[in-house]
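#struct-help
A.M.: can someone run this one for me? Single chain, 322 residues.
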Amino acid sequence: MRYAVALLAAALLVAGAPGCGGDGAEPGAPDGATLVLDFMPNAAHSGIYAAERRGHYEDAGIRLQIREPGQSTDAPKLLEAGRAEFAILDIQDLGIARERGLDVVGLAPIVNRPLASIIARADGGVRRPRDLMARTVGVTGLPSDDAVVDSAVAADGGDPGRVNRVTIGFNAVASLAAGRVDAATGFRNAEAVALRRRGIPIRVLPVERYGAPPFPELVLVASRATIERDPELVDAVLTATRRGYALAARRPGRALDDLLTAVPALDRADQAAQLRVLLPAIRPTPFDAAVLREWAAWARRHAILERHPKVGETFLLPRGRD
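D.P.: on it. Structure tokens below:
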């Protein structure tokens, strides 16, 4: 029995649910499955597109449809309704979905380090998080943004209450480029890359360096119903996806080609710059239960979540590691 199958069986025993594989298809017939992305295709998804183009899903007996999110797409609801089998979610969104009563489960890290950061103008005197006191910081309005600011400033010995926050939506690049804010929350593989490519001098303050545990930013997710009904499908998708990310980590140029072949409208130079930032974080690794417990405490402490999540129910972990 492969490790992933054993992991699935152990996790289902912990959850007290009997697993049963198969969906009634004829032996040897490919299984159809849909995977919903967390955002429009980009370098963070390079391993998925590499696995698809290199035939890893087909080798595993899967006809995988990769679905881009739309304005009305709510991936956790699609999973619960059986309209998709898999999704990529930000770890905070996974926690929030479970608080809303959706029984979705993290299967494996996709990006295994935090990407959230505070991005400051390098010409504005902000060298570290506590320098943000009495300065203006742009946030999207999501609770996770306030958590990033609070965590970083407090960890650096400052008072988060003295930071002047303004809601700018998802306009960090334009706001920083125009000098309307001294800093903004954003992702080091996205907004930070865009600003540097525009020649804007910036300083990136990763939340992982200031107060937050090294949690996985993006997670491959399925509903518990899918895990229980078809563990072999889940195992096959996990195996193929890990092969794709192993290739991306080992041969990023090839994975970038695969991404751009699938989505030719993407800018190659921009995606290459994003992938360089992501490389240390996309190597396929299992969940670290200790880190997930630290994340759970951090997310509750900073009001991203209303309750302390149960790690053993939120993530698929081997027996004895939850």
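A.M.: thanks! Residues 116-209 form a domain with the D-Maltodextrin-Binding Protein; domain 2 fold (CATH 3.40.190.10).
D.P.: also worth noting: The CA atoms of residues 66 and 167 lie 33 Å apart.
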